[in-house]
Design goal:
Bound molecules: guanosine-5'-diphosphate, magnesium ion
Structural class: alpha/beta
Mean pLDDT: 85
Strand content: 5-15%
Strand order of the largest sheet: 3-2-4-1-5-6-7-8
Number of strands: 8
Order of helices and strands: HHHHHHHEHEHEHEHEHEHEEH
């Protein structure tokens, strides 16, 4: 997905007259209609979102002298601080194809060669993964969104819906977090801002029944994409995992192959704790991809690589701000360039 499917219809709400591009209530009208970083293209947009991580890694940019043990130790430390995680750092620095070995072999002598070395190694690690969102052969395509409360699930659903709408899809939301009234309310507000439909259930009703109703309505209305929100209590909660499994079963029974994606939302500012959350979800339910949020608010952007490494679940989308356009497909090449751009 994330390519033009057909002529944009229905029209996404006019940013001049609708607050749809504002995620924060306090944003001034019109201010978010055309977020400034966007004008500078997707790469600059990503670069701005990663500013905090970049700031941390910046001391590596100006390296000039010959490489030595001290500098290697410093590089290692910076990568740890940026949350690349022990295994990634080990691979990048100590491993057979790592920086130290390349230095010992004389392939790298100058410190300024280090950045290019790290960039190419990181790109190579991620290049073979398929990061596109899967689509159903026939609509509706169904995306199930899971994650612990506060990670940015509902916001990401709104952003994803916005993207799919822009690509010309008809989008429907299902509020299967029936546990908290506020969750349904929040998603309903989003559906209104985006000008799309939403399926809800009674408070504390069976979340799977809301998912069921969502599919029925998607079929009736010729919906291209159905996005299902779910509850997000503690990831160790057995009932939550049972609920999620049941929702998956209902979706799969109604539409063969559904959900096309089970996307787990992780908060990038949680660093290595996000990985522990993901390990539990991965064990309990089939997670096909990760939405990593709040990369704009953290110096720990390296967690993207740690996730790929440790979990073998691809990061498919990244959140880099609070506005609707601030959810972008994860492009390893662009990401690495943005991280190490001077
Ligand atoms: P949920 O409980 O998982 O549904 O989380 P919400 O969608 O309600 O988001 C929790 C908070 O995180 C809200 O204040 C969002 O605006 C904020 N948020 C979500 N994604 C991002 C992001 O990519 N960047 C920033 N800076 N904030 C985000
Ligand atoms: Mg929510």
């Amino acid at each position: 997905m994330f390519k033009k499917k057909k002529a944009a219809s229905p029209e996404p709400p006019d940013p001049e007259t609708s607050p749809a591009t504002e995620l924060v209530e306090t944003a001034k009208p019109g201010e978010a209609a055309e977020p400034a970083p966007r004008k500078r293209g997707a790469f600059a947009f990503l670069r701005a979102g990663l500013e905090k991580t970049r700031a941390g890694l910046r001391s590596l940019f100006g390296l000039r002298e010959k490489l030595d043990e001290n500098t290697l130790a410093r590089i290692e430390e910076e990568l740890f601080v940026a949350d690349f995680g022990p295994k990634m750092v080990e691979q990048l620095i100590e491993g057979e194809a790592g920086l130290r070995a390349a230095w010992k072999r004389g392939e790298i002598e100058q410190q300024d060669q280090v950045l290019e070395f790290l960039k190419s190694r990181l790109k190579a690690m991620l290049s073979h993964k398929d990061l596109s969102l899967r689509e159903a052969p026939q609509p509706p395509t169904i995306y199930l969104i899971a994650g612990v409360n506060g990670t940015g699930k509902t916001t990401s659903i709104a952003k994803l819906a916005h993207r799919l709408l822009e690509e010309g899809n008809k989008v429907l939301l299902a509020a299967a977090d029936t546990f908290r009234a506020a969750a349904v309310e929040q998603l309903t507000i989003w559906s209104q801002r985006l000008g799309i439909g939403i399926v809800t259930g009674e408070a504390n009703s069976d979340p799977a029944s809301v998912a069921f109703k969502g599919v029925e309505r998607a079929r009736q209305e010729g919906i291209d994409c159905l996005i299902v929100d779910t509850a997000g209590r503690l990831h160790t909660d057995k009932n939550l995992m049972r609920e999620l499994k049941k929702i998956r079963e209902v979706l799969a029974r109604k539409v063969p192959g559904a959900p096309q994606e089970s996307l787990l939302v992780l908060d990038g500012t949680n660093g290595q704790n996000a990985i522990q959350q993901a390990e539990v979800f991965k064990r309990e339910i089939d997670v096909s991809g990760i939405i990593l949020t709040k990369l704009d608010g953290t110096a720990k952007g390296g967690v993207v690589f740690a996730i790929h490494e440790r979990l073998e679940i691809p990061v498919k989308l990244v959140g880099i701000g609070e506005q609707l356009p601030d959810l972008i497909p994860f492009d390893p090449g662009q990401f690495v360039d943005a991280l190490f751009e001077k």
